[in-house]
Design a protein that fits this description.
mainly alpha; about 0% strand
Length: about 90
Amino acid sequence: MKITDFLFGLTISLFFRLSSWLCSVPMWLTLILHFVTGLPLYWFWATLAVWLLVGIIRYCVIVFARWGANSPEMPKENKNPYSHKDK
């Protein structure tokens, strides 16, 4: 697998991650609380970082699982004496 394929897939995955607003509710809540109650702004940046990190880790797990599933298995020698055919 080439690194460009990985980065392209990661970009697409993060685009869909950014477009899913339901998952970003904690991030927006911390931003609203910053303006309403004076919550420090680093809480917003921390939730944004965690939100993106979860998306990146999820994508890497999917890539790792696909990478393992694509490895071809070499044919094995039949060692069962009962299924051996005489020629």
